[in-house]
Write a structure and sequence with these properties.
Elements: H1 6-10, E1 12-15, E2 26-30, H2 36-48, E3 53-57, H3 64-73, E4 78-84, H4 89-96, E5 101-106, H5 113-120, E6 129-130, H6 136-148, H7 152-159
Parallel strand pairs: 2-3, 2-4, 4-5, 5-6
Antiparallel strand pairs: 1-3
The protein binds ligand C2R.
The site of ligand C2R has 17 residues, from strand 4.
């Protein structure tokens, strides 16, 4: 049996090479610990570019009050929300913040089309930038591009 992943057991795990008083660039929210494989694809990209992030397992369906409090208080510049099935999570996050929200639909059933359509079909004014099914990598790269608007060094790295 492999060792448990720290953020799965601890519920929250903060990684940051440049940690400044708990501030992180990206918040990665999972609807369930069962989405961890997709979250690993996101964090591999963020790690490669030395971007700080925080991982939280919070479901809009199961923990609505906790999610609201977290999003309202979070200092991250970009949110990545990962969810399968009836994936309300990214849309709810987008309704709670004016920051960019990237949605990653997870293939749990119906080939992930349920989650994809749920994220893509947001009402106007509440966008979720939805990447492909299970495509955690692109969520990471899109977050880097957004952060690159504020960080000349990161932008340069992305252009290399
Ligand atoms: P469990 O394995 O915990 O039953 O979760 C999760 O993202 C996961 O892919 C199964 C699937 O349910 C999803 N889930 C959501 C939300 N909460 C959990 N889509 C939500 O709030 O949107």
């Amino acid at each position: 049996m492999s060792a448990p992943i720290p953020w799965r057991t601890a519920k929250i795990f903060i990684y940051s090479p440049l940690l400044k008083e708990h501030m992180v660039d990206v918040s990665v929210i999972l609807g369930s610990a069962s989405d961890e494989k997709i979250a690993e694809k996101v964090t591999a990209v963020l790690d490669e570019y030395g971007v700080s992030y925080e991982i939280k397992i919070l479901s809009a369906h199961r923990n609505p009050e906790e999610l609201r409090k977290y999003v309202k208080e979070c200092d991250a510049k970009v949110f990545i929300a990962i969810a399968g099935l009836s994936a309300a999570l990214p849309g709810v996050v987008a309704g709670l913040t004016s920051k960019p929200v990237i949605g990653v639909p997870v293939n749990v059933s119906l080939m992930g089309l349920d989650a994809l359509l749920s994220m893509v079909q947001m009402p106007s004014g509440v966008p979720v930038a939805t990447v492909g099914i299970d495509n955690g990598k692109n969520a990471g790269y899109l977050a880097l591009r957004i952060l690159g608007l504020l960080d000349a060094d990161l932008k340069k790295k992305l252009e290399q």
